[in-house]
Amino acid sequence: MKRYSEPWNEFAGMYSYYTSPTTPSxxxxxxxRDEVMSMISEKGRPDALILGCTAGYRKMLAxxxxxxxxxxxxxxxxxxxxxxxxxxxxxxxFIRCDWRDMNLKKKYDIILGDFAVNNIHxxxxxxxxxxxxxxxKDDGSFITRIAVQPKKPLRKEQVFRMYxxxxxxxxxxxxxxxxxxxxxxxxSRKGAAENRxxxxxxxxxxxxxxxxxxxxxxxxxxxxxxxEWSMLKEAEQDKELKRHFxxxxxxxxxxxxxxxxxxTYVLKRKYTK
Length: 273
Fold this sequence. Notes:
Elements: H1 2-14, H2 26-43, E1 48-51, H3 55-63, E2 68-72, H4 75-82, E3 92-96, E4 108-114, H5 125-134, E5 136-145, H6 156-162, H7 170-184, E6 186-187, E7 192-194, H8 195-203, H9 211-221, E8 228-230, H10 234-242, E9 245-251, E10 264-269
């Protein structure tokens, strides 16, 4: 548990600065809202669980009067996300727990998890998936956005070239964050992206002196702690999911850089009782 929670203490402190792709975009949320509305029309307000404290998910469910349980290792993530939800009437419960072995003694119509799968180490994936299934009602849906490997990861020289004439902004720094971690920090054979490796590669800019200001701004806004994300090729990710679920839908938004490698999956149990 400590292995998962400690890096997130660092990330939580910076979370309010994140934009898409790290947080779901308007179109990402629209896709999920459509699923929720369909569920409401069929069976009324669903029982909902959110893996984490994602503000966009919480706001969307609150607007439709849906109670949500929030499951997270880190209370700090709840406090940070609450900052953007002031003035909104929420019906929620917070449960501090580990997604791999939580036992909430309840089943849900819908479980939402933004990049939840990417936060689980490879050796723990089956255990995590089984526990999600354990908390789903027979016809429940697990809806999750998952980052998959770029087909052609950017090389360091490409990244340096891209930022030669760019202006530093919140949007461009968030994109650089992904350029660094999920391209320069990607170990495609291992199926993982490493935070510290990505920053080290970015910092090794040699004669590309224009990157000095970018690296400085990056280190102020984003944690450079040791943190690893699981990240498979899309075909491998699909295969892994199919071992545990039925893939009902896979959709992509188009309103941010890297939306192409961040599909949203609608998953259901393979077998019902």
